[in-house]
Amino acid sequence: MGEIARRHRSAKTFFIFAMGALAACVPFPFTIQTPTPSLEKIAYAVPTDTRLPPTPNLNITLTPTIDRARPNSPRQTLPTFTRTRDSNTRAQTLANNSVATITAPSNSNVPVNPTSPRTKTFTPIAIQATATRTATLLAPSPTRPNLAIVPTALAPTISASNESYSTLQVFSAPTNPPAVNHPDLNLSLRGYSPTNATLSLVDYSGAGGSGAPQLFGLFADNRTPAFTSAYLIYDWNWSCNCRGGLNNDWDVLLLGMRTSVGENIFTPDSGADIGNDFRALVLFADATRVTLKYTREDNVVNGYTLHLENISVDANLLALYQQRDAAGRADLPVLRARQTIGRASGNEILVAIRDAGSFLDPRSRKDWWRGR
Question: What's the whole-model pTM score?
Fold first, then answer.
């Protein structure tokens, strides 16, 4: 025992001496500092062709949790996840990703060991949302087979037929200004305004005009149509070459007549032959209107003139008119009694009738609807 105690004291003395010498050699004091905790990454590479066992199941435990941010909110069931992974599971993760990264605190008491099983348990916390967004569900666009298409019955802008049309020489100088700019031929330049009036035939005193066009001849069945609307037409101020006030010579100057969309509209017969058994000369035509003259003068000064609106003028008739109009109007298209003019483009056509340039009431029974 004495020998052991002696050796112990010698060792202790040597240690004290050594520490003193070391302190004398170091010019400044130092301390051993604990390293700041940080994340340490260890990467393991595993060949991707390594045969691995199947991935273990994920165990989920549902734990009721109250949202601390909203104490009065109903209890919510939030999942608690428990995941256990051993070295084989980790190897499979590495194989699927070629290189996996395992992260752990460097000051953790548990060493990072890729071969040791690791268990992690965590519970998500419900956090109150800072904003509320409402999703709007949009119905999918219907596919073509499911589209419900409701066709609108409209006649084409310019109707086509098998009709052929002829021309006759005009007995007067060409109209001036050109027909499209002439308020006596192109009724759209004057315009018209609705009026309240009886929508039926009316009786005026006196004798009916001879050679007057009979307006029931506009229709294939020679019917007296239902009258649908009434208008007054504007005068024209020739001194300023501008539209004047409404013409109120008669209660109605432009009359709407019921039609079926696309039904044929014909030339009313007047009984007066203007040459080669024709009845009317076409003074003006465009896609939706036509002006007929029951003489062979290129004006409305003498004889009857008929204006038709809201019709789809026959393509062949329109083409012929445009050709002869461009050629100087020495001859113009002509129509036989009951020859097709075009088709109704809607549920009514508008009709105005003139004698020697004056607009008359198209409802007059004795003039335009004899025997009705």
Answer: 0.60
At residue 232, the 3 state secondary structure works out as: strand
- Which tens digit of pLDDT belongs to each residue from 41-66? 444 444 444 454 555 554 545 444 44
Please give the Cα distance from 75 to 65 (Å, whole number): 6
Cβ burial of 38 (10 Å; 0-12, 13-18, 19+) is: exposed
> In the beta sheet, which residues pair with residue 343?
264, 312
Q: Which amino acid is at 249?
A: D
Q: Is 99:109 a contact under the CB 8 Å cutoff? A: no
Q: Give the domain ranges of the chain.
A: 37-122, 166-368
Of 369, 365, 372, 363, the residue nearest 213 (C-alpha): 369
Which residues fall within 8 angstroms of residue 50, CB to CB, at 6 or more apart?
Answer: 91, 95
Phi, psi of 371 (to 5 degrees): 80, 5
204-224 exposure pattern, b = at least 16 Cβ within 10 A, e = fewer: eeeeeeeebbbbbbbbeeeee
Torsions phi, psi of 242, nearest 5?
A: -145, 165
Local structure of residue 275 (DSSP, 8 states)? B
Task: Report d(CA 217, CA 224) in Å as an integer.
Answer: 9
Are 351 and 306 within 8 A, CB to CB? yes
308 burial level (CB within 10 Å; 0-12, 13-18, 19+): buried
10's CB contacts (< 8 A; 6+ apart) are none
Look up residue 104 and give its two tokens. Answer: 């752990």
CATH fold label, 166-368: Glucose Permease (Domain IIA) (2.70.70)
Q: Would you say 157 and 312 are in contact if contact means Cβ atoms under 8 Å apart?
A: yes
Q: In the predicted model, is pLDDT for residue 112 greater than 80?
A: no
**Using the 8-state DSSP alphabet, how is residue 286 labeled?**
-
